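$ ./design --mode recover --in tokens.txt
reading tokens...
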């Protein structure tokens, strides 16, 4: 149930419904922590996801200081995860540059956004869209278009991929 609430929240945040996204992410976090026989690693995963979500929502609301506080909290939880569940940490550490890049983009620090997003998963269509959005903000239409083209080529069946398909059709005029 926690996973489903988080997926629904992802759709809401990507469509700008930040209040509903917050409620659903909080519900996902609460439900996730109620997993039967939850391990210490899974508990840190749910806490990491919650900090991650709160940082992105704060950034989208233009609350830079709050977003940065949640980024720092996410880093602390991620470090804790390294101790409690190293394999889970290895799976999750790749989402940190996405978080820092996302927060930088939505708080108008475009150079930092680009640096961080270029460290994120380049095969992820959503990341390519964020890179395209960043290049647009930096005034580089050609590189933005290149990022959107890369995003359009990625296949996926999840909320971020759906967002990427919709955005790339709009940006590329297809």
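writing sequence...
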């Amino acid at each position: 149930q926690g996973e489903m609430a988080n997926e629904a929240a992802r759709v809401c945040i990507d469509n700008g419904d930040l209040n509903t996204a917050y409620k659903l992410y909080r519900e996902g976090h609460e439900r996730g922590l109620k997993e039967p026989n939850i391990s210490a690693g899974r508990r840190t995963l749910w806490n990491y996801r919650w900090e991650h979500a709160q940082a992105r929502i704060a950034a989208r609301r233009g609350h830079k200081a709050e977003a940065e506080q949640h980024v720092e909290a996410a880093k602390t939880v991620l470090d804790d995860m390294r101790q409690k569940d190293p394999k889970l940490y290895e799976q999750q550490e790749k989402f940190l540059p996405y978080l820092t890049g996302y927060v930088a983009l939505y708080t108008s620090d475009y150079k930092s956004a680009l640096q961080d997003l270029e460290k994120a998963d380049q095969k992820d269509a959503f990341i390519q869209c964020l890179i395209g959005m960043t290049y647009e903000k930096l005034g580089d239409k050609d590189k933005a278009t290149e990022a959107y083209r890369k995003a359009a080529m990625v296949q996926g069946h999840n909320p971020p991929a759906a967002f990427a398909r919709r955005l790339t059709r709009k940006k590329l005029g297809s």
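exit 0
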